[in-house]
Specification:
This protein is mainly alpha-helical. The protein has three helices and no strands. The chain has helices spanning about 5-30, 35-50, 55-80. The mean pLDDT is about 90.
Length: about 90
């Protein structure tokens, strides 16, 4: 088990790795060629149109409602499984 200092250092390293990856991606995006930017823009608009369709929004809403309804049941079932059984 790690001590508090070890956890703090591990968290700091993970944060710096994330910052580095973000900076590298930002640099990559800034240095794209014109055609690459154009194609990325087309992909971005296509994704927006696909995700904003009526059927897609209905499916996403349905999935969210299902998760809201089922999550408490799953949590209760998990609690029963994790609870030590008397006499076992």
């Amino acid at each position: 088990m790690k001590d508090a200092e070890g956890l703090r250092l591990e968290t700091a390293v993970a944060r710096e790795k994330l910052n580095f990856d973000r900076a590298r991606e930002k640099d990559r995006l800034a240095n794209r060629t014109g055609p690459e930017k154009f194609l990325d823009g087309i992909a971005k608009w296509r994704r927006a149109f696909v995700l904003s369709g009526v059927k897609t929004i209905a499916k996403l809403t349905s999935a969210a409602a299902e998760i809201i309804a089922i999550a408490p049941l799953e949590e209760a079932a998990g609690g029963l499984v994790r609870r030590p059984q008397a006499g076992w």
